[in-house]
Amino acid sequence: MASIKGSADVVIIGGGVIGLTIARALALRGVRDVLLVERASLGAEASFAAAGMLVPQAEADAQDDFFNLTCQSRDLYPAFAEALREETGIDVELDTTGTLYLALDDHDQEELKARYEWQTRAGLEVELLSGAVARELEPCISESTVGALLFPKDIQIENRRLLTALANSVNKLGVTIITQTTVHSLISEGNRLTGVETNRGVISCSVAVIAAGTWSGFIKSSTPCKIPQIEPVRGQIVCLEAKPQLTRHVIYSPRGYLVPRQDGRLLAGSTSESAGFAKCVTAGGISAILRNALEISPAIADLPVVDTWAGLRPRAADGLPVLGACDEIDGLFFATGHYRNGILLAPLTGELISKAIVSSLR
Ligand SMILES: Cc1cc2nc3c(=O)[nH]c(=O)nc-3n(C[C@H](O)[C@H](O)[C@H](O)COP(=O)(O)OP(=O)(O)OC[C@H]3O[C@@H](n4cnc5c(N)ncnc54)[C@H](O)[C@@H]3O)c2cc1C
User: Which residues have C-beta within 8 Å of that of residue 34, sequence separation ≥ 6?
Assistant: First the structure.
């Protein structure tokens, strides 16, 4: 492979949803010389494996700062999706039908009522439904459903189309993309970043963003600095085919979920496993996913399984995303550790990081 020697104003390390969204946001803010370096190919890791749910309310137990960020990012999606359609002609299939969260026994119902109470107190949109009303809405769900929450604002996107749209967008906006190239280390003089070293040569830059997902912690630095240590948390998905589609809503239970896609795929997820970097599908994983999916909807029993896959969610020690400037090296930024919410948090991450970089360049 030919060596590269070059320079850029900003180098983004990692071409998943986070790196691509930041590259686009920087280009839209007028930063001309943005270069994205991707180890393999664009959008082939966690961002490709995800289920595309934008469901902060369905997953939250309290209204904290993180919850507020996730809601803020979800609410950016309609404009984000529309802008991508205008720029690229690609429909990212933002589906605003909403999310149904089922209680399948009395214990689930307690959890569901607690969520309903704090969210109504906080003024959030949520409806408490009886099992019968939930079944009227989605006839495929289990007859054991004792109640449900309807989150009308918790929506979904086709994350693979999103990645294609982002790749097209950054291309049109003039971002330089280098794939099949790994950034090994950061180069700095004193506490000032001056470049990155790749397996194909050095790229000079005054700003770099680590957006390398679960591999972020492997990037070395010549100046000591706290690179976030990110742990891989494996998630598996079983993809069924339902034509006509079995459900309109994203359907959740405390143990699993079903996500209907417009083309008839029905995603069943997921697992949450510490298995190192082994990105494989396992018999135990598939079995647990199908058990939980059948509990939500026994009607899936007759559907063909058309695909299975696994991805590695990037999790920081405290489970929260690591966003912003590095304390020890001027010009270095982090955008990693998005764990279960990288698709959801992408538009807000793009806004926050691009804004911080642009003010640092002034
Ligand atoms: C099964 C599953 C379901 C999920 N469902 C959802 C969901 O419904 N909603 C949601 O919001 N989130 C979901 N997630 C989480 C979401 O997928 C992640 O949070 C998100 O994709 C992280 O994006 P990223 O760009 O940081 O990482 P990635 O997509 O993993 O991208 C990182 C990129 O960096 C590259 N890279 C790594 N090291 C280097 C290097 N040294 N040099 C150059 N490039 C490098 C990699 O090759 C990779 O392409 C799910 C994840 C899984 C696995």
Answer: 8, 9, 10, 12, 23, 26, 27, 170, 174, 175, 176
